[in-house]
Amino acid sequence: MDLQIREAVEIYGSTKYISTENLLSAVLDSKKIGKILGKYEDIGKIINRSKEELKLLKLTNDEITKIKLLSEIINRITTPNEPDFRNPQEIAEYLMPKLRYLEKEEFIVCSLNSKIK
Asked: What is the DSSP track for 60-79?
């Protein structure tokens, strides 16, 4: 693990100011990171790539698995287990993390009642 990352976590307790490149180096081969970030400028766009697209970037199966696991961790952190919507803003906050980095538009139907329960 990169010394800068280790110091940030152990000494300062934060990774907030570490660059995307350095964060990715904790998970992926540092030689591949420049190529990946050159193609997908935003880290969110990397995690939504298919296995085939990631293979084109010369990532190993282990690295692809790590990216997919990170994607699932992010999804679970940003998505409540049982949503309880009380207004349109809460619906938007629930759906935005799921839809934010999609390349294709998706149509979602939310069937709600007016009882707010």
From this structure: -HHHHHHHHHHHHHHHHHHS
Instruction: Find the helix or strand (DSSP H, E) in which 116 lies.
Output: none
Q: What is the identity of the amino acid at 4?
A: Q
Structure tokens at 29: 């081969």
Tell me the CA distances in angstroms from 16 to 9, 73, 82, one per residue in order: 10, 18, 29
The pLDDT value recorded for residue 117 is 53
Can you give the pTM of this predicted structure? 0.59
Query: What's the CA dihedral at 95, 101, 102, 105 to 10 degrees?
Result: 70
What six digits make up the tokens of 87? Answer: 């207004």
Please report which helix (H) or strand (E) contains residue 1, including its range.
none
Name the average pLDDT for the chain: 80
Number of residues that this document lists for the chain: 117
User: Helix, strand, coil proportions of the chain in percent (round to 5)?
Assistant: 55, 0, 45
Residues 82-101: pLDDT tens digits?
A: 777 888 888 888 888 878 87
The mean pLDDT of 66-81, rounded to a whole number, is 80
